[in-house]
Records
---
Amino acid sequence: MTQTEHTVALVTGATGGLGTHMVKRLLDDGYRVIANYRSPEKAEAWLKEMQAEGYEPAMYQADVADYEEVGAMVKRIQEEIGVIDILVNNAGITRDSAFRRMTPESWDIVLKTNLYSVFNCCHHVIEPMVDQHYGRIINISSVNGQRAQFGQVNYAAAKAGMHGFTKTLAVEVARKGITVNTISPGYIATDMVMAVAEEVRAQIIKGIPMGRLGGTGEIAHLVSFLASEEAAFITGANYAINGGQHVH
Ligand code: CAA
């Protein structure tokens, strides 16, 4: 890649299926990658696997749903590594159920983890990005923020909310050297998708014109592109990457 002095990349929810591949790809690209995680137990095993493959991300714990925790994490990163040049808001969870069965708790945790987290992380990284007149913010949304998916009122609301957030923040910081974009993956072969009942998943795959799930590397490739300095004129955009499942 054509590398610059802007080398520090933070990936939230790094230990998940999409996050893992993003971390590897950004390390391969030559960035100093910070892997954010929530659960120390999972992160410890994950880091061992990464190291066995020759990858050395820096590890920083914070629940991205918590504004104060994110603030403390960003402060430590800035002191120990430097200003965050690239932020990938990737952390996300599902708590699927039909709306009539959906609990206030599952609404709350999905909105806080998937959408409030984007505010929390952006709000803490934005001033240093403005000061250095450079930044790349990449928000990982979903095809299900663009279309209906039975059982995902909470998830769809959070993922759709990211679009309004991205477009508005993009225009607010467009003159500050910062780009803000959304990626909307379709169904990708991750644990999150594999958790969907097999018969339901088979039905979903039938509805994907390419007839297959996406690969985590395909999303990481797009992250790498949007993170690059050459992507400077792309902002407020949404990149759908869903095998043709939703075209509009
Ligand atoms: N369309 C229409 N009706 C449906 C339906 C569908 N897709 N699925 C279920 N129903 C019906 C049921 O038949 C049932 O009807 P009756 O009451 O008349 O019997 C009613 O809706 C309610 O059913 P249940 O509450 O019992 O729901 P369920 O247990 O059958 O299934 C569910 C609910 C768990 C949400 C299931 O539909 C499901 O897993 N759906 C897939 C959700 C999904 O795609 N999640 C994506 C996870 S991966 C991800 O999110 C990553 C990403 O970004 C893409």
---
Amino acid sequence: MSAWPFPFWIAHRGAGKLAPENTLAAFRLGAQHGYRAFECDVKLSREGIPFLLHDATLQRTTPEHGVAGERPWSELSRIDAGAWHSRGYAGEPIPSLDALATYVIANRFALNIEIKPTPGLELLTGQVVGRETRRLWQGSGQLPLFSSFRPEALTGARETAPEVPRALLIDSLREGWLDEARALDCQAVVTNYALMNFETTARIHAAGLKALVYTVNDEAAAQWLIANGVDGIITDAVDRFSPAE
Ligand code: G3P
Ligand code: MG
């Protein structure tokens, strides 16, 4: 098992809600606030190019509609992913994973790639994101961290990039969640922070894994989680939580 690659504080979708999520402008803003580790959501274009978008559909964060993964990259790359947020970000494009990799590797930032497949494409998305991540990070001396709510996506990523550490994301303590993480050779479990407490961190640690949480924006909650042993916090509040490392 390779060394744990992550700083404690991780900026959610680049810079939380302060900039348009999952754009390079957001990562730049998060970095201006001192962040050196970032989470992003990645899915595939129609021809299989990994790009950043949270939702399966385009309407919340762009002027377009419909399933993003049904569009070719030639269309996706020209869509405005900034204007919905505020005028100053109008024209900010949807980035490819390739473009984000260039940015984070140049700055030696840590990246948590949440594999967020278009429904029905879980295994394929994991396989392709794994293959592309391996190619993009090769020779950089760094590795990102994969995470996903979808175990099939982590299975796919393990097939094509077994050396890249994996984390199982969970939003409920469903039957067998820790066994699932172990079966996928995960190095971490990332839970909704409402699920995490001393007992849960202790169970995760006893299995030899790290315990991370999303999305913590409240100071008292963060302090409580730290006291209960979490190994990392994903936050929107990049202007209020100053990363120590
Ligand atoms: O990866 C942690 C967090 O981003 C998971 O939830 O919906 O914000 O992608 P979501
Ligand atoms: Mg996410």
---
Amino acid sequence: MGLKVYISGKLYDKDDAKVSVYDHGLLYGDGVFEGIRSYGGRVFRLDQHLDRLYESARAIRLEIPMTKEAMAAAVIDTLKVNGITDGYIRLVITRGAGYLGLDPRKTSNPQVIIITDRIELYSPELYEKGLAIVTASTVRTNANALSPRIKSLNYLNNILAKIEGVDAGAPEALMLNSKGEVAECTGDNIFIVRQGTVLTPPNDAGILEGITRGAVMELAAQAGHAVREAVLTRHDVYTADECFLTGTAAEVVPVVKCDGRVIGTGHPGPITRDLRTRFMELTRRGG
Ligand code: PMP
């Protein structure tokens, strides 16, 4: 039996799961989304993901046509129908179908889409050895233009940076903000470790406030590591003792090179490895 996809209250076979070509989600990237993981049949931090989804929707004045409780139930039902215990959930809310113009008031019926599938972002080898990333010349969207805190369907800014990474043979690319400070990677948040302190850029740097980032900051504090938000530059990344990325799909992944410079020893560092172990334990405990 093939995978079923939830669209606005109904389940469709994967091949028949479709929305209108007039949907502003397609025409303009007008909508919001979430990427969520399920581990051992338990959805990791579902409430936090739904809070962020509804916040993103609010920021673009899109009213999601169901309650958070109903959304949570629909996510869990869709996983169950597909028999997925360890997998990935993609929640998409579109503005709905309208006419060929920008005005969101001329759309109706925002679509609620829930895709549940399996995911493997990086090979096990990369988790062992660490990633070599590059800095993209594409700057992260200025928050005064479109806040990176909105997880919108318009990911072109990140995709352009991703293309630069792909061209350079790198699995992820670092994005700076318009001030030249480190913001985040195309689909992951970034951390460095300097003299035992775990550092990550603040919201003001122009980042998506990652759920994994939050979980890792909690775990670092519990483990007795000093952890704080700090404005970082590429200099800080190049001279860090350790570096790693966090994200729903990536989990915690070490970075050992940036722009050809070796970070620390060139191998995943002890704090990175400790935090990865703690994070994987947390996913087994259900979040
Ligand atoms: N930054 C960006 C731009 C992202 O797309 C993601 C992945 N959703 C993240 C950071 C990491 O966020 P999270 O830990 O919530 O997946």
